[in-house]
């Protein structure tokens, strides 16, 4: 009948403030992004040789891959063997504490591997590891 008999509690709409929850979710998202470790890949799948003494390399910042056709790949790009030194120098300048890992295919030639290692040493990187599967 009459609307004026309604209490003030019934007239107010009840709502939940979700702002604090959004703040917490946003902070958690930032935390997970900052603490996540990202896996770097050379850009191709390489059939690595097996080694009984293979050791996990923790701080591999530069990955160089050599495929079965002796093509050199850095950061998912095929590069000329003559430009390996300059690219490695630039990547090493970005992260001086990182190591260089060469992923050479079993079918690749030692000549290409030695050229990549030589270019890396001329670029000032002496901490070089060869990737292998754990047998």
From TrEMBL:
Keyword Magnesium: no
InterPro entries in alphabetical order: ExbD (IPR003400)
The organism's place on the tree of life at top rank: Bacteria
Primary localization class, coarse: membrane
Chain segments annotated as transmembrane: 20-39
Keywords assigned by UniProt, alphabetized: Cell membrane, Membrane, Protein transport, Transmembrane, Transmembrane helix, Transport
Subcellular location: Cell membrane
Membrane disposition: Single-pass membrane protein; Single-pass type II membrane protein
Similarity field: Belongs to the ExbD/TolR family.
UniProt name for this protein: Biopolymer transporter ExbD
